[in-house]
Amino acid sequence: MNDLPTDFDARTTLARPDLAAQGLEGRVRAEAFRATQPMRGAVPVADIHAGADTDSGRIDQLLHGEIFDVLDRRGARVWGQARRDGTVGWMDASALIQHRGLPTRRVVSVKSVLPLNALTDEAIDTAPVGEFETDPVAVAERLLGVPHSLGARSSLATDCSGMVQQALHACGLAGPRHSDEQAELGVAVARDQARRGDVVVWMNLSSDHSWTGHSAFMLDETRVIHATGFHGAVTVEAFADADARYLADGFQPAVFRRL
Q1: What is the pTM of this model?
Q2: Do 87 and 177 form a contact (C-beta atoms < 8 A)?
Q3: How is 22-81 classified by DSSP, letter by letter?
């Protein structure tokens, strides 16, 4: 046991020094291991926080029908992992129900009662699970005007990496939650080769904030589509303008990834 790692990525590993998921036994060090209890989102969108206190920062959200694997409880709060994107955190138990059977349909409309990519058995504004769209940028374009909000990831409100993630999910593609993870998607391309659909990430790994950079899609060779606090919403902007602003704010030069 002395050789087991203690420096795992706590954002996506369901483990603490005192407790870890049973499936991690022999892979991480913890005082105890326990089986998780699968629960399912019962409200349109529920916040996931970094800590048990509701005042702690929002780090992600769980959409209706998504599975949350619960490992620990503290009063009305539960600690676990969102199965769809791997985020580990705390959320309200009241937003969850027992997981019994997988939903059969995925929300495809951005104007529905449930947000885009929520899971349900209802037929309205949905498509069968496993039936996906083909153009992530076309999905992102339907999100134009959606308010920017840090830690959000839905068609009701979203941050930059949440917008990229939801567009990818709608197309059945891997959609990690954080900008640094999105900067590893696909293969690298040069700026003069960038085209519609390429993911753009300006990294910023400063320790004074929880986010790791800024993510966008290339809309075409000269413009990006992204959720930005500067504009307060999902918007289209000239790449040159966005690039100049992020570089001036201390971000690293943009990287371009082709899926």
Answers
A1: 0.93
A2: yes
A3: GGGBTTB--S-EE--EEEEE-SSEEEEESSSSTTSPEEEEEETT-EEEEEEEETTEEEEE
